[in-house]
Structure formats: structure tokens, C-alpha cells
């Protein structure tokens, strides 16, 4: 648009203020969002996180902007974020927000979030996103990539002249929170746990696949258990909440990235919303691997009905499912039904190795009762987390 002229370079005076705040911080925290991905700013972010030595968290849309395998990464924040990420977001003294919106799924109740005094630096190309939901102390309007480059350069010079405050005790606290192992789950030899499937998918693909998802529990498990180390490897609809996009997304991703492993993490309800695209995949010789976490429920709806409505389930169960193996085969693809935990890894290896050049529909029959933990209920504060069924 001719009338749209965004500010790319951040105000140097504001960047200087941010540097001084970060140098003095004893409990710094870095909070990144989808703006890092959109700006292609992962290299600049990685450099700055290394310079600051602070814990880093990434929203659902920001995953991969900073490597999940790094010790400085504390997981995703928010409604289904990790205990350590949420506690650090709440108890830091300086929060550096980069290309993120402070949306309700991240900070929960804004009044609860504002209870703890902290300084907030907010970098975003859209001025309307700054101070929209929380009060910001140092706003920096600009393209994330450009601002981070300037911030890093200024910080390097300032840190050489003035030694940054020690954050050793802060990391000790973060490690204590991390010690809760909030993503640990009770695996089973009898029934397939959905988290286990995602963990094994990460192992089999070497953490290097392009992963798309639909919406629901499977989306959250994908975000929690597939460790994204690179940007633009995680493609989902985010706040749009669009069921059915996983397979079409994967088709586009494969057209743009031929030869790479493509995985669709989906559920038995979401996949049926665009299942006819199996025909398009056959026509264009597209070969994504469909990882269906089939719990015979609209899982996230069922979870909320269990927690908030006394397990009074209404229209959240799926009693009319097709045989997905036969459906896949009818379209000319490979279909696999997996019912035992011991068969999870072999099935994934078969799909990605033996049938590398075929579309494979993997129908994993998973635990019907498994919930996504941790969880911050709607309207609650960021630190008011349910860590498991024992908290209900």
C-alpha cells in the first residue's frame, strides 16, 4: 500500500534506555513472538540472547526463532506454557518483549500480570501493539531485525564499559522452577500417549522436519514436545484457531521445500475438514506424513468440559469416524493404524524411511483421557497453573 510507510529503524535514544535497563537487570527475561519469524530476525535474536545470558521464552508463533535445544530456552509461555517460563515472566525485573503481543493466551489476566513490578521493553513494528494490553516503560517502534542489530551493537559497547549485573541467583531460581519437570508425563506400555508420539517424531526426523498442525490438544503437544531449533519449521494458524489447515499447509510447504521431511500433526476431527485434499496430494505427487493423534474426542473441548463443567461431555465425542487406513488407501496412499506403544517408533520410521516417497496416513489410537498440562484456566493469572489432574 502506497500509504503504508512503517518505521524500520528504532529510535536510538530508546534503544540506549533499553541497554541501560538490561545492564542493570538482576532478573532479566526475553519474551519473543511471531514478529521474530516474520522479520527473519533469528540470527540477531540468537546473538542478543547469548550476550544477555538471560532465559528466553517463545510464543506459539515464535517457536524456532530461538533454538529449543538451548539451555537458555525455558519453553513456551502462557495457557499451556511451561512452569519455568510462566514463573520467570511473572517474577523478572526487566522483561524484553520482541515482536510479541502480550495476548490473553500468554499473560492470562492482565491485572494479575501487573501485580509484580517490572520494567518492560517492547519492540514491535506496529505501534498499535505497544502498550495495548500492558503498560510499557520503553517502547521501541521498528523492524525487529533492525532494532535487534542496533540493540546488540549498543549493548556490546556498553557492557565493555560497565559490567552487567550478576544474574547467577536468577538462574538458580529458574533452574529450581525447571526442576518441577512440568512436561513430564506418565508413559504407558498399554496405551499410546500422544506426547510420546510427538517425542518419537522429533527423534525419527532428527528435529529437522517441517511440522504443520491443526488446532486442539495435538497442536499444543506439538508445540511442547517437538523441539524447534530453526525458524519457519513450525507452521500453524495460531490465534486464528483454524481447524483443517494442517494438510493444506503441508502441501504448500512441500511445494516450496521439495525433498524435506514434512509432518502434519493433526486430530481425527481436524483432518476430516479438508481430507479431500488427499486427492490433490495424489495428483501432484505430494508426500507429507500425516500423524493423526486419534483420541476419538474433540480433545481440547473435552478437556475444558472435564475441568470446568464437571465432565458433562456434550458434542465433544466422535462416534462416527471412518477407517482412516481405508480412506488413505482409497486415494492411493499408504495407511497405517498403530494401537500399541511399542509400534509407534517402528511405524514412524517406516513412514519416513521406507515410504519416503509416498503420502502416509498414520492413525495413532491414543489415550482418550489425556489432557494438556500445564494449564492456566481462562481468566486466571499466569502463575495460577494446573500442573496435572492432581490439581483439579
Total count of helical runs of at least 4 residues? 15
Strand proportion, as a percent range, falls in 5-15%
Helix-strand pattern, N to C? HEHHEHEHHEEHHHEHEHEHEHHEHEEE
Low-confidence blocks of residues: none
- Percent helix, as a range, is 25-40%
Rg value: 22 Å
Rounded to the nearest angstrom, the distance between the terminal CA atoms is 51 Å
**Mind summarizing the main beta sheet?**
6 strands, parallel
Shape, per Cα inertia axes: globular
Determine the structural class based on helices, strands and strand pairing: alpha/beta
Number of distinct beta strands: 13
Identify the strand order in the major beta sheet: 7-6-8-9-11-10
Q: Give average pLDDT, whole number.
A: 97
Notes on the structure:
This protein has 392 residues and is α/β, with parallel strands linked by helices. Helix 12 (277-283) links the parallel strand 8 (262-267) and strand 9. The strands form three sheets. Strands 7-6-8-9-11-10 form a six-stranded parallel sheet, sandwiched between helices. 36% of the residues lie in helices and 14% in strands.
Task: Summarize this structure briefly.
The chain is α/β, with parallel strands linked by helices and 392 residues long. The protein is built from 15 helices and 13 strands.
Fill in the keyword field for this structure.
five-stranded parallel β-sheet; alpha/beta; 15 helices; six-stranded parallel β-sheet; 13 strands; globular
